[in-house]
Fold each of these.
Amino acid sequence: MCGIVAYLGSKDAYPILINGLYKLEYRGYDSAGVALIDNKLSVYKTKGKVSKLDKFVEDKNTNGFIGIAHTRWATHGEPNKENAHPHYSMNKKIAIIHNGIIENYPTLKEELKGRGYRFDSETDTEVLANLIEDVMHNESCSLQDAVLIALNQVVGAYALVVISEEEPDMLIAARKGSPMVIGIGDDDYYIASDATPIIEYTKNVVYMNDEEIAILKKGQPLKIKTIANQDKTPYVQELEFNLNTLEKGGYEHFMLKEIYEQPSSIRDSLRGRLRAKEGVVSLGGIVDFEQKIVHANKIIMIACGTSWHACLVGEYLFEDLARIPVEVEYASEFRYRNPIITENDVVIAVSQSGETADTLAAIDLAKEKGATVLGVCNVVGSSISRATHAGSYTHAGPEIGVASTKAFTAQVTVLTMMALRMAQLKGTIPTSRFMQILHEMEAIPDKVEEVLNDGGVAQMIAEKYKDATNFLYLGRGYNFPVALEGALKLKEISYIHAEGYPAAEMKHGPIALIDKNMPVVFIATNNVIYEKVVSNIQEVKARNGKVIAIVTKGDKVVRGLADYVIEIPETEDMLVPLLASIPLQKLAYYIAVMRGCNVDQPRNLAKSVTVE
Ligand code: F6R
């Protein structure tokens, strides 16, 4: 987590850095800081959000054509001013920003203390700053060499940028396990955790690889080396996304904008891949691996959080359609187990950011065991997209709101297309049925539009239940992952405790929670287990629980039982998650707003979880 930005060139660095930090605030907002060189190196930092830093520096000298800046999600040390980045080295000549964790920092710190170094913070990063100073001093070497030598002593993960008052026309960046992009302008350089702060200045970027160091010197071409000191040729790519996608576009929050973008984000996921009339569904990125998937012993899907919920939908889809056994694993658990994986297994890693540390580690483990590993990522060029053998992008566009919405529906869209294609290749689905699902899939974006235009029902229900302290979300079959996702959305942005359960499991425990104060959200759409879910609703009503139900348009039975219903259009059961998740996103959004919560930046969370 943490967002880093750096600039070197002929423009004023501060406005570029602070705007970059605002764009990266989704990666953490515990504290923020900036370091600039205007003859002298100055570091300014504050606890709290980027706006506090911006205010704090109003009366300070923010001149300079080189600088680094950071917005933090605390790992080592509480989120106070001392622990905020950038960190000076002890002689105050060097400043560093860092995203990641230096695992052997306690040992390094003790050694440095023994050599007389003092520390102002509890962070692992300050240790690195002093280690670089120490190397420079002992070896009488340049900043570039000192960073290289220091990093060879470090165990852990990092994306970092270092500047020195003694070499004021140079940025040194390094990456291992945390993302970093370099933007190449006409006569300037930009560095950031992702491309969003860079895009307005240049479209030419280099995504750094693990164990690489970049040397950016004014007026000189970009140099990249490995930390083993071998020269590499920088691979310059052109960025494709549009600046407008990074703005709120008239919406009060990114989350709301992203919820409303879903008709178009799903369309973008489908574009060029699904052509119902021709009976074609094809994902270019995995074409070479189709036979591998079709003949797989089993598929293992790995992910975290919302992406894990998308995998659960994927499990049902692959089993139903392609008859391939699927296991869905939390990446964080999988990486520390001794999972049974063979070369005949296919692992599908699903991630919006493509940077989630646990998912990356799980990918490494699966690769070590010889499995084929495919990725389903949203962020183009992200670490996961590059660590996997192949994959398909979700093409949902940048997701800025911390709570994932359009990325989830895009992930489900891609997994549905994959499962359909495998079913077609494997011959596990009659052609007429295949065609029917393809047509229905093509109609989903319009149906999502219909769901979004709910005439204010979600808002009205939010008003009614905004003060509840607990919520239960229940669904069965394809609607079980939707229940989990609905509960996660509510708890992460409104801080109301919410649990998702398979509806039939209610009687094995959660039913004890039900009383007149407990809102229970049922996803009770028309399917083969509809009657069973109706019985579960009756069980809740018999205990005076309040029922909010997502139902298929025209439903009468549940309408007669529930306190509130939200209708969604009729569709294939397997496509219901694409529609039913949307009112739950809206419900969570409105409840959070009514409770005065910061929906785009909920407390303690960050958009990409690049630490364990
Ligand atoms: C919830 C949410 C998180 C992420 C999880 C995985 O709204 O956004 O649960 O889904 O941190 O992140 P990615 O998909 O980037 O790997």
Note: The chain has three domains: 3-239, 247-448, 454-600.
Amino acid sequence: MKTILTGIRVNSEPTLGNFLGALIPMVRLSNKYSKDYNINIFVPDLHTIISDVDGDLQQNLLMEIKYYLAAGLKINENVHFYRQSYVPAHSEMMWLLSCVTSTGELFRMTQYKEKSNGGDESTNAGILNYPILMAADILLYDAEYVPVGEDQFQHLELTRNLAFRVNHKFGREIFVPPVKTIDQVKFMEMDDGIRIRDLQNPEKKMSKSSKSENSKIMLLDAPEVAAKKIMSATTDSVGKIQFDMLNQPGVSNLLQIEALVNDRPLQEVISTWAGETRYGDLKKQVASSVSSFLADFQENIAAIPDEMVYELLETGEEYANNIADAKLAELQKAFCIR
Ligand code: TYM
């Protein structure tokens, strides 16, 4: 059975960007494919500690699993939730993979450059090595499909390269490489990778770490607060409602958000607004969609008991440890350390 896998760090409450870029696509894929695919949803707690955690990591983790459930993910025996650190093979696999990764590959990663302020030497080594752990997360389970936002594509390409490199080194198919990013996007039924933009500065992605509260929508924002943030979003002076991320990123971002929160195809939303010119009308519509979406979602979260989450994690971790230990042993044998 093939595997679809994803993870979201738990440094803080997610933004609408994390949610629409990664969580919602995973929920949609899971509900569509979980009869025939393994659905692996894990919490990358070890990736989380590369930077500061807002609030309590354990609490954030519990909430994250609830977000998937509150967003409508249906559980069955093929859906597995687990914590990365509860499956020790991830860390061990990372070491083995680090021995076939060049430092140049790591220094070239855009996220490393950003998070290290262009290579500041006081940056912790976790930030540099993080893509190797991500490759381990994926390759341990032969996951072919990895729904992530566009900012993670470079890490996914590295993962593919490492899989091919290991297979070539040992002359056999130890790993199943994840499919190319272009095919990931097709599998997610998207035209392109998703990058929800900062509401105030739509050239940039919406990010948890942004200092301006108006630039990001957090999942637990009161619906009316979220609506206000949409109403104050930066647009442009072109005066046409159309999807053109390059020249009109603010307006395009609103169209994208409107499509995703209503689970409508982007093309359909674009055609609904074709020929319209009043940005205020678009903002009102998106503000209303986002606030009713958040209201429903927040009501669903409150109904999920903590015990249910812990039970899911324990069952998932048993499954994950079995699969991951077997794959780790295969690579250990290939390296002759077993
Ligand atoms: P993280 O925690 O930074 O982000 C989680 C997911 O959210 C997506 N994302 C966005 N998508 C659209 N628009 C945005 N503005 C936006 N901001 C964030 C990210 O692309 C990501 O999919 N390394 C990963 C976590 C991870 C992982 C993995 C993912 C660890 N191992 C294995 C998949 C498979 C990360 O830090 O994502």
Note: Residues 306-334 form the longest helix (29 residues).
